[in-house]
């Protein structure tokens, strides 16, 4: 394969790559992440409930702190 054939081949493949629609990407792609909305909501609710129980417990002297 001569240099001119290599250059022609490179030009053709570059043009084909430019014309290819983006849906047909090859190689590694970014993974589609779904997020953790239910898990985050569950943790927030749990923390709020724990804070309410601890606040109520301190307020009513459940833990014997004010003896």
Please tell me about this protein's structure.
The protein has helices spanning about 5-20, 35-60. The chain is an all-alpha fold and about 70 residues long. The chain is rod-shaped, with a radius of gyration of 32 Å. It starts with a helix and ends in an 8-residue tail after the last helix. The model has no long low-confidence stretch (mean pLDDT about 80).
Any chance you could write out the topology, listing elements then pairs?
Layout: H1 3-19, H2 37-59
Task: Please supply descriptive tags for the structure shown above.
single chain; 67 residues; mainly alpha; 60% helix
Quick overview of this protein structure:
This protein has 67 residues and is mainly alpha-helical. Helix content is 60%, strand content 0%.
Q: Radius of gyration, rounded?
A: 32 Å
- Structural class call reads mainly alpha
So how many helices?
2
Shape: rod-shaped
* Main sheet overview: none
Unreliable parts: none
Please tally the β strands and state the result: 0
What is the beta-strand fraction?
A: under 5%
Question: Roughly how much helix do the residues carry, as a percent range?
Answer: 55-70%
Task: Average the pLDDT over all residues and give the rounded result.
Answer: 81
Distance between the termini: 95 Å
State the order of secondary-structure elements, H for helix, E for strand: HH
């Amino acid at each position: 394969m001569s240099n001119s054939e290599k250059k022609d081949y490179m030009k053709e493949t570059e043009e084909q790559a430019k014309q290819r629609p983006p849906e047909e990407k090859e190689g590694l792609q970014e993974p589609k992440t779904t997020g953790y909305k239910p898990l985050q909501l569950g943790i927030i609710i749990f923390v709020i409930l724990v804070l309410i129980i601890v606040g109520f417990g301190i307020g009513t002297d459940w833990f014997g702190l004010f003896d």
